[in-house]
Structures are given as C-alpha cells and as structure tokens.
Amino acid sequence: MSQSLHFVVSSSRSPNLTLPNRSYLKLSPPPSNLRFPVTFVRRPISASSSDVDSNSPSKVLVSDNGKGGVLPATSPEYVPPPSDSSSIDVDAVTEADLKENGFRSTRRTKLVCTIGPATCGFEQLEALAVGGMNVARINMCHGSREWHRRVIERVRRLNEEKGFAVAIMMDTEGSEIHMGELGGAPSAKAEDGEIWTFSVRAFDSPRPERTINVNYDGFAEDVKVGDELLVDGGMVRFDVIEKIGPDVKCRCTDPGLLLPRANLTFWRDGSLVRERNAMLPTISSKDWLDIDFGIAEGVDFIAISFVKSAEVIKHLKSYIAARSRDSDIAVIAKIESIDSLKNLEEIIQASDGAMVARGDLGAQIPLEQVPSAQQRIVQLCRHLNKPVIVASQLLESMIEYPTPTRAEVADVSEAVRQRADALMLSGESAMGLFPEKALAVLRSVSVRIEKWWREEKRHEAMELPDIASSFSDSISEQICNSAAKMANNLAVDALFVYTKTGHMASLLSRCRPDCPIFAFTSTTSVRRRLNLQWGLIPFRLSFSDDMESNLNRTFSLLKARGMIKSGDLVIAVSDMLQSIQVMNVP
Ligand SMILES: Nc1ncnc2c1ncn2[C@@H]1O[C@H](COP(=O)(O)OP(=O)(O)O)[C@@H](O)[C@H]1O
Ligand SMILES: C=C(OP(=O)(O)O)C(=O)O
Ligand SMILES: [K+]
Ligand SMILES: [Mg+2]
C-alpha cells in the first residue's frame, strides 16, 4: 500500500512576524500541484538496516589478549572531496558507518577525549578521530599554552585534511586548591604514618623530602589541627597534626601515590571545609589569560571549572561576545561544587551546556550522592535543551589495563541509558596506556545500550516541558517534538534538519528519537559545535531558503556518496520554512 502525504505547517519564519493566533499552525491538505510526491510505506524497524555491528567503528574492538586494537573504518590516506558550495562535508568515518551499517546503528552518544602526552601527536589524534572522538578536550591545569596551541593546530589540520569535524573544548583550571609540580618527578609515594609538610612556600629543586607545595596562599589559615586532608578526592589521606606558620604538618592515614598538581580538599566533621577558599574567584587571573588564548585560537567550547553561580557564566558570555568575531564559543558549566548544585537550574539556564565533573564533585559531596546528582543534572539539561557531558573515571582502570572492569562498563551503560549527550575520557586518553581501546569501549557500549533501549522501547515517558521564550520559538519546539514523535511512529530512517544556528537540530536531539538526525548547516563552526549533541550527524552544506531545492540537492549528494538510497523514508524540518515533510528518497 502506498499513499501520498504532505505536511506543511504554514509558511516562512521571520523574527518580526507576529502570528495572529494558533490556527496558523495547521496541517494543510496535499496541494494539487504537489511537487514532492510523498510515498508513505509502513515498514518494520529492522527491515532494511542492520542493527548489528559489523566491521565498523561501532564494533567491539577491544580484546584483553593485549593484541586487540582499533580497526580503522577508513584508510588513513583518505582525502575528502574538496568543499565548495556544491558539495557536502561529512567525515569518512561517518560516511563508512552509514554505508556499512545503515542509519539505525549509528552511535548517538558523543565522545569527548582529553588530550595529553599519550595522545597529542597527529597520528594519535587521527586514531582517536577514526575511533569516534567528537570533541578533543584540553585541560589548562596541565601543559603550557604553547603545548595546547600545537594540539589545537593538529586537530584543525586533521579536520581540514581528513574532513572530520572534531570540536575543541578548552577547560579552565579554576581556583581549585592543588599541589605543586613535585620537582619534575612523575609521582611520590606517601606511606602509612609518615609525616608530610604541606606549605605555601615555594621550594627550590630538588624538593625537600616529604614536602609538598600548595598553590593557595590561605591554606595554612583555613585548615585546623584535626582536619582531614584528601588528595584527589581520597586517593591519599592525611590528618592535620600541627601548623607552623605557612607549614602544615600532616600524618598519612591512607597511603598512596601523590601525582603532580593533584587536587586537595579538607574536611572537618564529615563535611568539606569552606573557609576563605570559598571566596576564591571562579575565573582566576590565569584563567582569564587562558580564555583570551582560547578565543584567539577559536576553540569551540570553553568549560568553566568550579562554577558557583549563573552570574559568572553570563559575565563570561558577554566577555566572549565582545571579543570573538562570531561569538560562537559555547560556554560549558562544570558542575563540581556544592554551590553549583545549589544553583543548578539557573547555572544551566545561563550556560550552553554542562558537564557532570564527577572527579571534583565526588570530593565535595559524599560519594554516594554523586549518582543521584548525575541523574538530576542530566535530566535538567535535557529539559532545558542544553548538551550534557558525563565525565571522570568512566574507565579509570584502563589507564593501566587493556580491558575495563565490569563495574566501569555498568557505569558507562547507566550514563548512556540516561541519554546523556556525551561521555568523556580524562586520564584514560590523556596519559593512559590504552587511549584507543578506552575510546572503543565507550563506543561499543554506547551502541549496544542505545540499541537495547530502542528494542525494549525504554522510553521513560519523559514529558519535556515547554521551554520556548517566544511564540516563534514555540513553533520550532512544537515542530521538532511532533517530527520526532512522527519519526518514531512511522519508523523513518532519518530526520533531516536544515539549520543555520543549530537551534532546530538541538530541539530534535532533545527528543532523543529512534532514528539518527542529519543536521545540515552552512558553517563549519556550527557543524563542529553540533558534534557534542546526542544523535546529531552534522553535515556542512550551503543551502537556500528553498526547501525543495535543498532536499533535491541533499538527496543527490548523499545518494552519490552511497549514504542514502532510493526508498529511504525521511522526515525533514527546517528553521527557514517551518514545515514537517515526510517523504521517500526518490
Ligand atoms: N596537557 C597535559 N599535559 C600533561 N599531562 C596531562 C595533560 N592533560 C592531562 N594530563 C594528565 O592526565 C590526567 C587526567 O586528566 P584530567 O582529568 O583532565 O586532569 P585532572 O586529573 O587534573 O583533573 C592529569 O592528572 C594529568 O596527569
Ligand atoms: C572533569 C573534571 O574536572 P578536572 O578534570 O578539570 O578536574 C572533574 O573534576 O571531574
Ligand atoms: K580543569
Ligand atoms: Mg574538576
């Protein structure tokens, strides 16, 4: 059976348009001069595309025999066609994935990799991109600006030469209290019962034995004898036993390895001590210099550590808007402090996205409260239509071992099941022994859990609240909600969205539909930014206000590359023409 359908939700959108009433939103009958004959064919989800991974980047590529490795989906020699106004930009890995596995099995959860000494080379970065890295994160806590500049350059070159759209996220150091450099040593071992001195004094090299420099001047004033000092949220513990001027003497109670620049917190009667250190600025003077660096380098995201209030986010956004030409750097609020949990909704509202920074969060609130905080942050971000990253210790054991613990796989699964936009690797990719394998685990677990969720239809009946702030936005939101619902009900192969700013694409992503979302946008920076959002496959394509010609061009370009085929069922929406169109690819 086939029949013709055509949904058009009225005409074009203009910011100044005042809409008379809601009857404006209507489904028009098929016009007699229907130029898009729409054939609607019902078919089962599994009819055409395989949900099973084959030899693709989505396959489980990690083996614990020590030999397993990432099998690149494409040859490293791949050179994408030159981009001009008549072409479409998509990376080789996505292209191969779509061709080999069909739309259904594309990965929806995005992957962020922290770049460090283990992954900063061009080939290493390329291996990560081939392995599915969507965003490269540089952490300004470590390394020099010159080091970070070279990483950014390599990622940019990779994008240009190989057609990737890997975005760059710069993460600020923030005013955290941390240890100094250990005089060049990679680590220092603290044994049970040993007395160590923590001091704001700077020491000459070589560092005196059992002495640690602390970066915060008020340290000795804030701590009290009897406090507990936690290194890296409890990897090593000390009791404060004596204060002598700037020096704080501590006895080790939980032995372990001290790493350079490890984070320090102190606890009194079971709670985090918040004295003068609570007054430290969220963005330090060093952070402002790093932010200037990030703006000059044109990074895509700036993640702000230890956010306490929405004000700091608003302040930074206006700073960026005044300095960055296109002001298109997105600001990500890292939720990792008690204050950020208190002001969560307004912080997320003010930001362009959030990160559940579980490392420091778990050092600021009792560990057993971290999972519920994570769930709350992920849900709130989805309600407010902000991308959310779940970060820290997802595969911590893979810093040293080629295979994850079962508990780590369960943790990754839970984040995917919560439908977070993105998962992040920290030490696993920055300085671990198996960065590509860790990425492959995130990839295969994501694909498998997403598939499970679709099969089981584990849609929690999440009623998304209305978030539009204008009637025009409300139309976009309703169109996207309806289009996503239709896409599920009709089991379409893909949603297409033509979007200039990316807003409509994010509204579709927010619905977490069963099919992938092909997001067509005319600028490379928007394309890169969309790479952080759940379910979006961003393409760069120059398009016009004429949806008919956009669709025809897209179909022929994608067909020529073998990424779609005649008969695929597609729903298209756009932010120029507020419409929902259902059609088979001609
Ligand atoms: N640019 C870098 N240079 C050197 N080491 C780095 C760099 N980035 C990250 N690392 C290493 O990887 C570890 C994990 O990274 P991350 O989680 O981002 O930092 P942190 O542990 O300080 O919060 C760091 O502790 C550090 O040892
Ligand atoms: C991601 C985090 O921040 P950073 O790695 O910068 O400490 C965290 O604390 O979990
Ligand atoms: K940081
Ligand atoms: Mg942190």
What would your notes on this structure say?
By secondary structure, the protein is α/β, with parallel strands linked by helices. 32% of the residues lie in helices and 19% in strands. The protein is built from 17 helices and 25 strands. An 8-stranded parallel barrel has the order 4-5-6-16-17-18-19-20, surrounded by 8 helices. Strands 9-8-12-11-10-14-15 form a 7-stranded mixed sheet, with no helix packed on it. A 6-stranded mixed sheet has the order 3-23-22-21-24-25, with helices on both faces. Helix 11 (406-417) packs across helix 13 (435-456). The protein is elongated, with a radius of gyration of 25 Å. The chain starts with a strand and ends with a strand. Mean pLDDT is 84; it is low at 1-85. It binds adenosine-5'-diphosphate, phosphoenolpyruvate, potassium ion and magnesium ion. Adenosine-5'-diphosphate is lined by residues 114, 116-117, 139, 141-143, 259, 359, 426-427, 430-431.
How would a crystallographer describe the biggest sheet? 8 strands, parallel, barrel
- How many beta-strand segments? 25
Mean pLDDT across the residues is 84
How large is the count of helical segments? 17
Question: What is the overall silhouette?
Answer: elongated
Low-confidence segments: 1-85
The helicity comes to 25-40%
Distance between the termini: 17 Å
In this entry the ligands are: adenosine-5'-diphosphate, phosphoenolpyruvate, potassium ion, magnesium ion
Taken as a percent bin, the fraction of beta residues is 15-25%
Q: Measured on Cα atoms, how large is the radius of gyration?
A: 25 Å
Enzyme class: transferase
InterPro entries: Pyr_Knase, Pyrv/PenolPyrv_kinase-like_dom, Pyrv_kinase-like_dom_sf, Pyrv_Knase-like_insert_dom_sf, Pyrv_Knase_AS, Pyrv_Knase_brl, Pyrv_Knase_C, Pyrv_Knase_C_sf
Biased composition (Low complexity): 47-58
GO cellular component, one term: chloroplast stroma
